[in-house]
Design brief:
By secondary structure, this protein is α/β, with parallel strands linked by helices. The chain contains twelve helices and ten strands. 39% of the residues lie in helices and 18% in strands. The strands form two sheets. A five-stranded mixed β-sheet has the order 3-2-1-4-5, with helices on both faces. Strands 8-7-6-9-10 form a five-stranded mixed β-sheet. It binds 5'-O-[(R)-(carboxyoxy)(hydroxy)phosphoryl]adenosine and zinc ion.
């Protein structure tokens, strides 16, 4: 089964063709980063207008590269598009609408069913595209510009939210700290690069463990960076050391909480998805030998950040599990996953905040 997938929830216009949920026949991503850079963040109105301008070309390019065509079109190869999948939330409503309307128009014109997919589910299932053995149950850490969540997936399409950020998402903290340091937008990749030349112990920051819960918080860390920059000591610090210290504080909390929860739930597979999963220090810590009791599924950076192939993969496996029905699509800025029904004894940090 070949699925044409469309993703336009934020600032990437993306389309892909995915065969049987695992094989990427094409994946095209048109980024809007240069348009948003002057504002140091995504401007929703600019994002939706840019999706309108770009989406038809991106879809055509994905079809051309995959050599797939529509049913009944005589001039194309035997590879046919059987269904369309599109992100319906969470995301920016204006941006989501562009993807939804494109998908619905194509579905109507070519007589194929259209399915709506949750963006977070796409990130959670992105390892399908690169790891042939990947399947539930698994614990997912989603860390992106808008989300930081710990999600338990028991079966295909069956998820429970266990922890989430109480304020900023991890990616947002990277972007805001990069702005304070005049490193440009998006901040995550810039901090990641500069941190490689710095030493975290020269500029330690406190960790917000929020003991007893599986939630996260990153806004206090942002404030700690701001106050450090304003202090006489901070003015003498190298940017690279500040980046390393900040990055270590974010990564430490993400890694320790995820591993502790996986142990508590006795889940052996861990998925890390979303843009922050591209962070080199996070990847290094997750794949370190200390975690050999777990299988950590880390997609390549191209499949960790926003793309449409992950939406096609998620749609295929949900369809196969009978958990996806065609019908009227409803886009929403927030789609909440059900909370875990049982109480899991809260997190206890094993290390403490370094002295500041
Ligand atoms: O998943 P994504 O592409 O879009 C959203 O759904 O938000 O994530 C984008 C976020 C941005 O905040 C960006 O700064 C962050 O992911 N990011 C990174 C890295 N690459 C992207 N954060 C830390 N290190 C990176 N290498
Ligand atoms: Zn995303």
């Amino acid at each position: 089964m070949n699925i044409l997938a469309i993703e336009s929830s934020c600032d990437e216009t993306a389309a892909a063709v995915v065969e049987n949920g695992r094989r990427v026949l094409s994946s095209v991503v048109a980024t809007q980063i240069p348009l948003h850079r002057p504002y140091s963040g995504v401007v929703p109105e600019i994002a939706s207008r840019s999706h309108v301008r770009t989406i038809n070309d991106v879809v055509s390019e994905a079809l051309r590269k995959s050599k797939a065509g529509w049913n009944g079109a005589p001039h194309v190869s035997k590879t046919k598009i059987d269904a369309i999948a599109v992100t319906v939330g969470p995301g920016l409503v204006g941006s989501l609408l562009v993807g939804k309307m494109t998908a619905e128009a194509l579905g109507w014109a070519h007589g194929v069913p259209v399915y709506g997919v949750n963006h977070i589910e796409g990130h959670l299932l992105s390892p399908l595209l690169e790891f042939p053995d990947f399947k539930p149950p698994f614990l997912g850490l989603i860390a992106s510009g808008g989300h930081t969540e710990l999600i338990l997936a028991k079966q295909w399409g069956h998820y429970f939210l266990i922890g989430k950020t109480r304020d900023d998402a991890a990616g947002e903290a990277f972007d805001k700290v990069a702005k304070m340091l005049s490193l440009g937008y998006p901040g995550g990749p810039a901090i990641d690069q500069l941190a490689k030349r710095g030493r975290a112990e020269r500029c330690p920051f406190p960790r917000a463990w929020i003991p007893g819960t599986w939630d996260f918080s990153f806004s206090g860390l942002k404030t700690a960076v701001l106050y450090t920059l304003r202090s006489p000591k901070g003015r003498r610090l190298k940017k690279a050391d500040i980046c390393a210290g900040f990055q270590e504080a974010v990564v430490d909390v993400l890694v320790q909480k995820t591993l502790a929860l996986a142990r508590k739930l006795n889940v052996k597979s861990i998925v890390v998805g979303g843009g922050v999963a591209a962070n080199s220090r996070l990847r290094e810590r997750l794949l370190s030998r200390e975690n050999s009791g777990f299988r950590v599924y880390l997609s390549s950076p191209a499949m960790s950040t926003d793309n449409a192939a992950m939406i096609g993969a998620a749609a295929y496996f949900k369809l196969k599990a009978g958990r996806l029905k065609p019908g009227r699509l409803d886009v929403r800025s927030q789609i909440f996953l059900p909370k875990y029904p049982a109480v899991i004894q809260g997190f206890t940090p094993t290390t403490h905040a370094p002295p500041s």
